[in-house]
Specification:
By secondary structure, the protein is an alpha+beta fold. It contains two helices and eight strands. The protein has an eight-stranded antiparallel β-barrel with strand order 1-2-3-4-5-6-7-8.
Length: 139
């Protein structure tokens, strides 16, 4: 009897452990994770783990309603570009005429909260967060 109780308990624990990741990663149907930033203006600030600072702090990234066209506006310059999805929670932002861009990941798409770092345009080669991390918050 004791052996059956242990086996049943182990089966329940295994089922619960396997079900939790599926539930935790389930998409919110109202805000699906499609790997692109939703339209709007996102304010860039230095990521808390960034120890060097970034020239992109206090810039704004505007995402057009078609969700492809973007415009980075800073005090000293502005640059147009586009974003492309990489996965369900990641996108690459490529700025026209520049060999680098941003690799961004959503933290909470409902609240418009993303984090990112500089990357070589359209590649997974990116600068570590302590050297170039930024936080993006939709206004």
């Amino acid at each position: 009897m004791k052996l059956r109780a242990l086996a049943a308990g182990a089966a329940i624990a295994a089922t619960a452990a396997l079900a939790v990741p599926g539930i935790a990663s389930a998409d919110d149907p109202e805000f699906p994770r499609v790997g692109v930033m939703y339209p709007g203006a996102y304010h860039l600030t230095q990521h808390p783990s960034n120890v060097l600072g970034t020239p992109l702090a206090d810039c704004d990234l505007h995402v057009a309603p078609d969700s492809d066209y973007v415009r980075l506006e800073c005090a000293q310059f502005s640059r147009e570009g586009h974003q492309s999805p990489v996965g369900p929670d990641q996108a690459y932002v490529t700025l026209d005429g520049l060999p680098f861009g941003l690799s961004v990941r959503d933290i909470d798409p409902r609240q418009g909260h993303w984090i990112g770092t500089i990357n070589i345009a359209q590649t997974p080669i990116e600068v570590p967060y302590p050297f170039a991390g930024v936080t993006l918050q939709r206004r």
